[in-house]
Amino acid sequence: MHNSVSTGKANMDRLNLIFCAIVLELSKLTKEGVMKKWKCEVCGYIHDGDEVCDTCPKCGANSSQFTELDETATTLIERSRHTNALHAQLIDLARQIERVCEDGIKDALDPGCVTVFQKSLDASYIQMKLSMTEIQGHMAKGKWG
CA angle, 23 as apex, 69 and 15 as ends, to 5°? Predict the structure, then answer.
């Protein structure tokens, strides 16, 4: 059972790192130059490019279902991508701190160390949940893309 839990956690960690990398790359792309943004009115997918795509990669809607976003909306998406990438990094760091703390608690050199590791574990969990909640709020407000 322990091995399957460890394998599952390792897979989640890898997925989290992939997610972070994707979000960071999107963040970098938008900082290098502002691309036009097109929103699929069927599913909400945001396409980046000078031209609208032929079909939506998410729902298959044709190009007539896309609306070009104005400069304000485009800027908000770009800023949101950057901030969401920062939150994704915080989540990843909190997960790393969690693993270190769990190892320190298990090692249990002395009560003082265990206390420090436990407090750090608790704080990292709170930080992770704060960032996850903030990203969830961004998604609900359309601050994603």
Answer: 135
